[in-house]
Amino acid sequence: MKKKLITGMLIGATLASFIFPTGLEVALADEMSESVHIIKNDKMLGLEKELNSPQVKLALHSKTTDQQAMFDYFAKKYDGAQITYVGGRATGVSETFYVGGYNVFASNQSALNYCRTQLATTATLLQANGTLGGALLGGPAGALIGLLGATILAGRFRDGSSTMKSWINVGSSKGGSRMTLTEEFPIATLNTTYQSPIKPL
Known about the structure:
alpha+beta; seven-stranded antiparallel beta sheet; 6 helices; 39% helix
């Protein structure tokens, strides 16, 4: 599978500008910026390209667009779109569109803490004023927010942060969260639709 390695300094972003203007920058709501390498598979690159098309940008801003239908289209077409982060505290974080949902997985304790913080920050900013924050917003999470809107997903990101905290509290060295339109639950591997009990992994 062809992969593209992108290095960028993590910067702040807003809801209006999140739709991958270059695919090179992601947002970080943190005290300091750090360099992170972002590995994107071909499906993720295809998703970014289509979301950047003038037709899709217009549709996303149209009040007549059926957001659910648009999400279903992208989730099916780009099932398996994946990003893996390498660098600093983000090392070991992966996220993907998988069978109609968004999965985020941390493969070490540092990544679990990082995910917990980023998901909580994102939820808070989305609830407060629709501003995006968090390193996870350059990939499937950002696409999800763009397709469905901040209001719908703020609660899911908050629940995802709580799930990451639960993994940490039981002493697990890894763990993840799956989010759909209707629910959020813990997962024990990246590519799954099955809820996992929270226990040390």
